Amino acid sequence: MFEEIVSGWVIVIEIVGALIMIVGAGFALVATVPAMRRPEARGKAYERLRRNVGRAILLGLEVLIVADIIRTILVDQTPQSVAVLAGIVAIRIALSFSLEVEIDGMWPWAKWRAAAAQSPDGRGE
User: Fold this and answer.
1) 3-class SS of residue 123
2) 10 near 64, Cβ under 8 Å?
3) What sign does the dihedral 29-31-34-40 (CA atoms) show?
4) What is the DSSP letter of 76?
5) Is the pTM of this model over 0.90?
6) According to the model, what pLDDT value does residue 78 have?
7) How many angstroms separate the Cα of 5 from the Cα of each of 1, 75, 95?
8) Rounded to whole angstroms, how far apart are CA atoms 76 and 37?
9) Chain segment 13-42, per-residue pLDDT in tens
10) Distance between CA atoms of 42 and 109, rounded to whole angstroms?
11) How many helices and strands in the chain, by DSSP H and E?
12) How far apart are the C-alpha atoms of 92 and 19, rounded to whole Å?
């Protein structure tokens, strides 16, 4: 009984994760259309679209990871399921990492250098 309830909730969480990606990408596209109609704004509009779609994908992936963790911890507690979870989480972390680099245009550990370079006193404050 408990496993069936948790399995049902895991499916709901997976659907929410997929919907976040679909709806987020749709909203990003709709928000970009007006800017794409103006030739002078097309370059920045495309960059904003990529960034917003990437953010939607990242958020959806995080929710899907939650569903996988819940399924493994509460429903399917076998060494094989833990190994599969580890593989899935590793792949999704790699995807999240590469998407974040794509969105920001820099390695995560280089953000503090970019912030310091943009501040007037050079300290990033």
Assistant:
1) coil
2) no
3) negative
4) -
5) no
6) 80
7) 6, 10, 30
8) 51
9) 999 999 999 999 999 999 999 888 888 888
10) 30
11) 4, 0
12) 17
